């Protein structure tokens, strides 16, 4: 027997009016939860379960109507209407929302609470209809293109007034905002803003709409954004508090680790629209300007303006999480996170984490006293925010993303168990049993996947339900990510128990490919000798504790991944990078290649109990790096690590590998170009996305 929503085949278990009742809202007759029965067999009592009722199917189609009944013959038109129907059925049935081919434009995000997941051990699935590729979009198309400046090759189109996104998607790819690169030597940085010292750049003061100008700095590992308030002669006065927050910490606007090699950009002015593939938005006039790439026909170009800041929020509570919710074969597209366009800017600290707001103890002279760290900055380290993802999961268990597509999104694509501040629900962490498999992440402004939070409840949860655990990321294609927020790792796990990153293909990232760990060892048992120094003063700050208990980070598995063509912008970090203690961690049988001059395997501050085994490394600058923090010797920081049985054809090994720190580097083999032994060749052949089993 098959039961479909509104259509009964076989023995009828629901009344003929069931479809109408579901559509109108009253309770409907349904199976109760599975019940056990007692059966007598040869004098023995046998306990068995009644058969589980068959799944109900709710149909959705762009050609449907929300006045329909959700049957295949009369599908709903919107996902929101299907969501309402699910809540009437999921207590006593598996429910499948079957989504037909087409485009589903959202005007508000889809928000899934505990009521939307499977109830009583049932499962709710949102999936593409057979052969369909439905798109869930937070954008709106742009049509009516006309030549605006024939000499400069600029076209324009009308858009709704007031719309001012940070991204534009043209023919499936992110267009670049109009910007120009400037030499850092032409400017001097101050607490109030930027002084122009090269007369050639004083023309910036002639630009209209100066409060919409954005300044970006890319350093050794940060990508910082801040907004201009006004330009008075040679004084570029910046909006606060974003500018002030971008002056403190490490690798700052005023003092990059990379010195004058660091990037400095001015953006978001029509005068900067010079290169093909760039765009500019004039929200007051309701106009969009674009300079086409060679061969682009604006009469046929698919141009999408993102309107939403997120698409999907999945969050219950710690007591009643969202359970048993799956998404299969769906494409999530077109968002734009807008905070960096305001006074806060984006005071990037590391891979999607940032500093914001006014705070007590801000240094009197931040450039002099805190552009290479200071006590006041260390007091804020456990208060960093995280970038909200386009699809967010928190306080949830047994959530599956299978064969989905995350593309054309204006921030990190998928956030799992991140800070509360990174979740639309206001609830963070608490994600367990989350699977992301055989999905595609591409053409993203930010990273692909960010797992875990960065505040104290992330590393030492105040209640066990907050723990992020059992996250499984497998057989995904991750390519061309972090195009605007370039400091973000393609895949990041901060604090999680038993995370598995298995057989993914990761490429096209300006920063790292796969990052694991957070905290630089400061939150591990006994703390870090580096952070206890007078220079850091970390443990002298309120709330920064020396823990005797380990963090939740343990048993991380990074196996079978193919990581290549990463580290395209930043010198710091590694293709596969690790931070802090991680008992039971295994990084094995990965194939890392084509990272010229960069680091392949990087164990950074406080890395402990990590085994690196049977990895194959090709065309890199450093095949294995350990940040041993030898300036605090003879105190030990990174220790109890093992690198064994790896093969490499290039690069050097750095860091402290001695008995004193119990770091062992043994039986690793340097191989001539192309002369891989059979065992190494087998690792190369197996790495990356696994063939599907028949």
Write out key terms for the chains shown.
694 residues; 21-stranded parallel beta sheet; 57 strands; disordered N terminus
Structural commentary:
With 694 residues, this protein is mainly beta. The chain has three domains: 2-33 and 53-122, no CATH class; 145-306, no CATH class; 312-352 and 387-686. 6% of the residues lie in helices and 35% in strands. The chain has a 21-stranded parallel beta sheet that branches. Strands 5-6-9-28-34-37-40-43-46-49-51-53-56 form a 13-stranded parallel beta sheet, with helices on one face. The chain has a seven-stranded antiparallel beta sheet with strand order 17-23-20-21-22-19-18, with no helix packed on it. The longest helix has 9 residues, at 678-686. The protein is globular, with a radius of gyration of 27 Å. The chain starts with a strand and ends in an 8-residue tail after the last helix.
Radius of gyration: 27 Å
In round numbers, the mean pLDDT is 92
User: Low-confidence segments, ≥5 residues, pLDDT <50?
Assistant: 1-43
Please bin the fraction of helical residues.
Answer: under 10%
Ends apart, CA distance between termini: 27 Å
Structural class: mainly beta
Question: Care to give the gist of this entry?
Answer:
The chain is mainly beta and 694 residues long. It has a 21-stranded parallel β-sheet that branches.
Per-chain topology:
Elements: E1 2-4, E2 7-9, H1 18-24, E3 36-41, E4 44-49, E5 56-60, H2 79-86, E6 95-99, E7 103-105, E8 110-112, E9 124-128, E10 135-137, E11 139-141, E12 146-149, E13 154-158, E14 169-170, E15 173-174, E16 176-177, E17 179-181, E18 187-189, E19 193-196, E20 214-218, E21 223-232, E22 235-238, H3 242-245, E23 263-267, E24 278-282, E25 287-290, E26 303-306, E27 312-315, E28 322-328, E29 331-333, E30 347-350, E31 353-355, H4 366-370, H5 375-380, E32 385-386, E33 391-394, E34 396-402, E35 405-409, E36 414-416, E37 431-437, E38 440-444, E39 449-451, H6 456-459, E40 469-474, E41 477-479, E42 491-493, E43 500-502, E44 505-507, E45 514-516, E46 557-559, E47 562-564, E48 576-578, E49 581-588, E50 591-603, E51 608-613, E52 616-626, E53 642-644, E54 647-648, E55 652-654, E56 664-666, E57 669-670, H7 678-686
Parallel strand pairs: 5-6, 6-9, 7-10, 8-27, 9-28, 10-29, 16-24, 27-33, 28-34, 29-35, 33-36, 34-37, 35-38, 36-39, 37-40, 38-41, 39-42, 40-43, 41-44, 42-45, 43-46, 44-47, 45-48, 46-49, 47-50, 48-50, 49-51, 50-52, 51-53, 52-54, 52-55, 53-56, 54-57
Antiparallel strand pairs: 1-2, 3-4, 11-26, 12-13, 13-25, 14-15, 14-26, 17-23, 18-19, 19-22, 20-21, 20-23, 21-22, 24-25, 30-31, 31-32
């Amino acid at each position: 027997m098959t039961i479909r929503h509104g259509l009964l085949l076989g023995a009828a278990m629901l009344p003929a009016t069931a479809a109408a009742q579901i559509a109108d809202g009253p309770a409907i007759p349904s199976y109760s939860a599975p019940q056990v029965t007692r059966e007598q067999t040869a004098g023995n009592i046998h306990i068995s379960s009644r058969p589980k009722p068959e799944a109900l199917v709710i149909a959705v189609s762009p050609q449907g109507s929300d006045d329909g009944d959700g049957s295949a013959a009369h599908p709903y038109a919107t996902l929101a209407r299907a969501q309402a129907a699910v809540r009437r059925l999921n207590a006593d049935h598996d429910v499948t929302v079957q989504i037909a081919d087409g485009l589903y434009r959202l005007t508000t995000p889809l928000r899934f609470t505990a009521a939307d997941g499977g109830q009583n051990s049932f499962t709710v699935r949102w999936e593409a209809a057979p052969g369909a590729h439905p798109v869930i979009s937070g954008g709106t198309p742009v049509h009516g293109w006309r030549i605006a400046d024939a000499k400069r090759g600029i076209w324009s189109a009308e858009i709704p007034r007031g719309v001012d996104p940070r991204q534009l998607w043209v023919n499936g790819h992110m267009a670049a905002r109009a910007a120009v690169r400037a030499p850092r030597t032409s400017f001097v940085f101050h607490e109030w803003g930027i002084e122009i010292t090269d007369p050639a750049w004083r023309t910036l003061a002639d630009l209209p709409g100066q409060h919409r100008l954005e300044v970006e700095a890319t350093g050794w590992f940060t990508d910082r954004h801040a907004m201009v308030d006004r330009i008075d002669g040679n004084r570029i006065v910046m909006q606060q508090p974003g500018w002030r927050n971008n002056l403190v910490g490490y690798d700052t606007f005023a003092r990059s680790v990379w010195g004058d090699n660091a990037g400095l950009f001015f953006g978001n002015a029509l005068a900067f629209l010079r290169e093909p593939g760039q765009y500019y938005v004039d929200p007051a006039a309701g106009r969009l300007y674009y300079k086409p790439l060679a061969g682009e026909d604006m009469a046929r170009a698919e141009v999408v303006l993102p309107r939403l800041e997120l698409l999907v929020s999945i969050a219950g509570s710690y007591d009643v999480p969202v359970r048993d919710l799956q998404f299969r074969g769906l494409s999530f597209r077109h968002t734009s996170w807008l905070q960096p366009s305001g006074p806060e800017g984006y005071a990037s600290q590391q891979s999607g984490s940032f500093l914001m707001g006014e705070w007590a103890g801000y240094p009197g002279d931040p450039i002099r006293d805190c552009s290479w760290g200071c006590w006041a900055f260390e007091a804020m380290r456990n208060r960093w925010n995280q970038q909200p993802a386009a699809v967010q999961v928190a306080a949830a268990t047994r959530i599956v993303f299978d064969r989905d597509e995350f593309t054309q999104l204006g921030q990190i694509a998928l956030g799992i168990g991140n800070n509360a501040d990174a979740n639309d629900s206001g609830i963070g962490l608490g994600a367990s049993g989350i699977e992301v498999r055989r999905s595609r992440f591409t053409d993203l402004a930010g990273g692909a996947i960010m797992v875990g939070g960065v505040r104290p409840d992330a590393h030492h949860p105040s209640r066990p339900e907050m723990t992020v655990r059992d996250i499984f990321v497998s057989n995904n294609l991750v390519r061309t990510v972090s195009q605007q927020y370039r400091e973000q790792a393609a895949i990041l796990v901060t604090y999680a128990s038993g995370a598995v990153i298995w057989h993914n293909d990761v490429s096209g990232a300006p920063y790292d490919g796969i990052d694991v760990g957070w905290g630089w060892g400061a939150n591990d048992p006994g703390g870090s000798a580096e952070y206890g120094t007078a220079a850091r003063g970390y443990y002298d700050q309120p709330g920064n504790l020396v823990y005797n208990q380990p963090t939740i980070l343990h048993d991380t598995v990074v196996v079978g991944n193919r990581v290549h063509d990463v580290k395209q912008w930043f010198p710091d970090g590694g293709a596969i990078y690790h931070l802090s203690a991680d008992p039971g961690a295994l990084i094995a049988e990965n194939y890392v290649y084509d990272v010229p001059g960069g680091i392949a395997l990087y164990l950074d501050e406080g890395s402990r109990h990590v085994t690196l085994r049977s990895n194959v490394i090709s065309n890199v600058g450093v095949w294995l790096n350990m940040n041993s923090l030898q300036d605090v010797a003879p105190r030990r920081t990174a220790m109890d690590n093992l690198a064994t049985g790896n093969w490499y054809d290039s690069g050097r090994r750095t860091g402290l590998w001695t008995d004193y720190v119990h770091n062992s580097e043994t039986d690793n083999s340097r191989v001539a170009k192309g002369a891989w032994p059979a065992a190494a060749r087998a690792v190369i052949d197996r790495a990356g996305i696994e063939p599907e089993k028949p």
